[in-house]
Amino acid sequence: MTNESFDRRAGDGQFGLHDQSVLKRENAYTGKYLVLLDCQEEERGMQALHSQAGIAAAEPVRGAEAENAVRVFDAPDRSALFPELGVAVIDVAPDQREALMTAAQEEPSVIAAEPERLVYISTITDRSREVKGYYPTYRSDEDVLERHTTAAMAVSLGPAWDETAHTWGLQAVRANHTHLTGQGVRVAVLDTGVDTEHPDLSARIAGTASFVPGQSVQDGNGHGTHCAGTAAGPAEPQHQPRYGIAPGAEILTGKVLSNQGSGSDGQILAGIAWALSQGARVISMSLGAPVSPGQLFSPVFESLAKRVVTAGTLIVAAAGNDGGPVNHPANCPSVLAVAAVGRALDVAPFSCRGQGLLGAEVNIAAPGVEVRSAWPMPQLYNTISGTSMATPHIAGIVALLAEAAPDATAAELKKRLLSGAYRLAQAPASVGAGLGQAP
After folding, report:
1. pLDDT band (50, 70, 90) for residue 355
2. Is pLDDT of 74 > 90?
3. Annotation says 388 is catalytic
4. Which of 223, 226, 328, 393 is catalytic?
């Protein structure tokens, strides 16, 4: 049986039954399935899956119940239902999969079903050496760019910026010229956790939760601390230059990726549910999984993202670092895909490009080459690269917009973000609306 995803709204041209076997990679899927339910008939949908496919009951996990989600994730044969999202992560035996898909097609209260993916903090492919696998680890700027020509690197690095007081990225998005700070706004960073004792960040952290079994929210990787710092680091860090876009915003840290930099769709869902329960106006996700050219976006994540936007929260996600199509889940139409630019404001060589398919486009760009931000102690700071670094720049800008317009809907915040972008010379397929700008 091939890996497939089903959505009953195939007639609208957005979704449908599509074969994902071309995307199969070793360890690309967890073996569990994501099931999107009608929010008004969740119980009916789960009962139908039980009676028709033998699917065991799923344990309800509400957004504020982080410890319950971890307990479910720690047991490979258990399933979780996130009532506020209308999504279940269910354990499915190989001989149940065909019955599951059949039930999903026949039961009106089951909207979509698809295999659960593994996701990573960075997914870099080495096309120049024809390596077909994906690297489930974060790579430094030197690692990412070593496959490109010296000329391409020079363009990406660009001219010198005076970073005595502010990082070049902060200057590029003009956060040093706004009176806004993100005061009263909560930014959720779903990543590898955060250094809760970091002298620049400890006072900024309003809430933490880990959805990784056996690991606390403490960041044993560095990636999550770096992203949190870029989004909402302080106006006066312990050591200059300033690097945080929204220094008045509060940080919500959801650990959805392990210290090794990997996680699952289900852990992301748990993090999103938690972030909503904590009042986040923007959710920053510097993570993803690779997709093949022409592959459709996830029906489950797209419908989920729509529900999140309706609830008043924007999701921004990294476009990806493999230079190919925009990664999952950033390729969903209702998720803002963020590309990376270098110091010359040219798109970084590694940044993923849009495909010309619905949802597979880049929406906006931000600084993502040689970005300095916080890092777990004792190092305190680090300079790294990737669309992972670009994404929290945009999350911070959304926090500033939310402070300026506290009653704005998520759709209105998105419109203001994109309309305020600085137009770049590169094609929209590479940089979307342009370079994000602080209001």
Report:
1. confident
2. no
3. yes
4. 223
